[in-house]
UniProtKB/TrEMBL annotation, chain A:
<dbReference type="GO" id="GO:0046677">
    <property type="term" value="P:response to antibiotic"/>
</dbReference>
<dbReference type="GO" id="GO:0005886">
    <property type="term" value="C:plasma membrane"/>
</dbReference>
<dbReference type="InterPro" id="IPR003593">
    <property type="entry name" value="AAA+_ATPase"/>
</dbReference>
<keyword id="KW-0046">Antibiotic resistance</keyword>
<keyword id="KW-1003">Cell membrane</keyword>
<dbReference type="GO" id="GO:0005524">
    <property type="term" value="F:ATP binding"/>
</dbReference>
<dbReference type="InterPro" id="IPR003439">
    <property type="entry name" value="ABC_transporter-like_ATP-bd"/>
</dbReference>
<feature type="domain" description="ABC transporter">
    <location>
        <begin position="9"/>
        <end position="234"/>
    </location>
</feature>
<feature type="region of interest" description="Disordered">
    <location>
        <begin position="286"/>
        <end position="311"/>
    </location>
</feature>
TrEMBL record, chain B:
<feature type="transmembrane region" description="Helical">
    <location>
        <begin position="74"/>
        <end position="101"/>
    </location>
</feature>
<dbReference type="GO" id="GO:0046677">
    <property type="term" value="P:response to antibiotic"/>
</dbReference>
<keyword id="KW-1133">Transmembrane helix</keyword>
<feature type="transmembrane region" description="Helical">
    <location>
        <begin position="258"/>
        <end position="276"/>
    </location>
</feature>
<dbReference type="InterPro" id="IPR047817">
    <property type="entry name" value="ABC2_TM_bact-type"/>
</dbReference>
<keyword id="KW-0812">Transmembrane</keyword>
<dbReference type="GO" id="GO:0043190">
    <property type="term" value="C:ATP-binding cassette (ABC) transporter complex"/>
</dbReference>
<keyword id="KW-0472">Membrane</keyword>
<feature type="transmembrane region" description="Helical">
    <location>
        <begin position="43"/>
        <end position="62"/>
    </location>
</feature>
Amino acid sequence: MTEPTDTAIRVRGLRKSYAGVPAVDGLDLDVRTGEVFALLGPNGAGKTTTVEILEGYRHRDAGDVSVLGHDPQSAGAGWRKRIGIVLQSSGGHDEITVEELVGHFAGYYPGARDPDEVIAAVGLDEKRRTRARHLSGGQRRRLDVALGILGHPALLFLDEPTTGFDPEARREFWALITSLADGGTTIILTTHYLDEAEHLADRLGVITAGRIVALDTPDRLGGRDQDQAIVGWTEDGVPRTARTSEPTALVAELSARLGAEVPALTVTRPTLEDVYLRLIDGAATTASAHPSPSTARSTIQPADPQEPVPS
Amino acid sequence: MSSLIRTGPDRRPHTASRPSTPRIAAARTRLEIAMYFRERDSVIFSFLFPIIMLGIFAVAFSEQIGPDEGPIDFAQYFLPGMVASGIALVSFQTMALSLAIEREDGTLKRLRGTPMPPMAYFLGKIGMILVVGVAQIALLLAVAALAFGAELPTEPDRWLTFAWCYALGTAAGTVLGIAFSSVPRSAKSASAVVVGPLIILQFISGVFFVYTDLPSWLQNIASVFPLKWTAQGMRSVFLPDHFEDVEVSGSWQHGSTALVLAVWLILGLIVCVRTFRWRRRDDG
Ligand SMILES: Nc1ncnc2c1ncn2[C@@H]1O[C@H](COP(=O)(O)OP(=O)(O)OP(=O)(O)O)[C@@H](O)[C@H]1O
Ligand SMILES: [Mg+2]
């Protein structure tokens, strides 16, 4: 098989059902070599099922899958040398210490990273001689990450890698992933943290009910870049908001009406989370959801403090 | 967590030599031995168990046992049974339990995601069983001889019999343990599903009871399974010659022993190759 150099993962029409219920339902996906790709989606959307099919663990019902130029279902040890896997949940080797385990796994790979460097990179230096059983949840997760990156993979799978990380560990993990990506590693990760996806990913795919419903860069996902801005202010003691594609004009108008300093003025764009929730809602109501941003010029409505603004 | 830029793709690999199956198998053997001895339960219930049982037999029964022309001490009489029991515990029970647990807790799944050759994994398990098994038998024989005055054979042909009985019994127990590891539905049920039948088998195979005292229908059931044959083979090693006459068949039956153990070994291998799974049954 010839290996396409610019496409690390190519998926067409992927399907997988459990007891007749589709978990992955006609999924198409391309991940380019060297990019960081994040899969987002609600619980049960089919992220893990998809990723584990790409890793060669689960067998698909239908569709074409190529990962580093091979069908993962039949790929051998040579292919496994080039991928790194951090599963959504993994365990075992409870009585083995961090340094023993990382050192041992290094022996599986022809060009393994230095175990000491990897242990330091995931911040487990102080736990080197601790058995896996006695690590905290987040520390265990770091050990999973260490074992995943040890073999110097060309392609790294991370299924919710930062679950259980404290905020500082998450920032450090982001730095680690960025450095791996800078070194040329292709990375596909799933996450429920939208800030994480926004920070790390070159492109995002949103998956619900086993299908990709949106796919773009973080700043353009779901037409986010053309979205209306949200202007908030206080008038007659009542908080108000407005969605508009011309926020500057609205602010000028408010300023003229309410005085030079508009009380409690805010101008915001929808966050990735707003866009994401809208995409998920849209996908739930229409089968092939890809809601385009409304083109209405400006609408003014009194804000309901109980309800989040964009919906 | 910090940058790993220093280990760019063109950096010299850390491992001096390329990984090979024998090298990984040796590393796995060391890891398996560490895992075995760090798990206190396995040390007590498979490693020390036959030694503890022998001590109980020796202390509880002070009279002698055997044919009138030359009875022997209980400790001497039950030593071969304890050797056979040790073989079954270290090979079959350890293998079946550890695999069932490793399949459930994700050890096997994680290993499957690396380039580790599957053969190296099994060689590591076998290496561990050989090291643990030999250590156990050595300790058992030393305790039997030094603490309970059991006499160990001096004739080389008896030790030859010991060697092939031990090797065949351990090999059969190991592959049957691998095959049986898929039977428990979960790691929670594994110890009951694995240990229960083995205890029953020890009672009817002449390990805890005098085999000839059992009703013949129980003897027939026991004769199907390997444990009865390793126990009988070990009796031929550790009991005086005149005990051969009180065997059910009046003979040590070395030929049948080798045959039955070899058949189980081959059957076990076939089942292993056909049914071995790296993941839980319900894992996608
Ligand atoms: N081994 C399995 N057996 C039966 N059903 C399964 C199995 N694995 C997944 N499913 C079902 O397939 C669907 C997709 O599951 P999957 O684990 O891929 O979701 P996910 O997107 O990873 O969710 P999460 O964010 O919670 O990890 C779910 O409805 C789940 O119940
Ligand atoms: Mg998942």
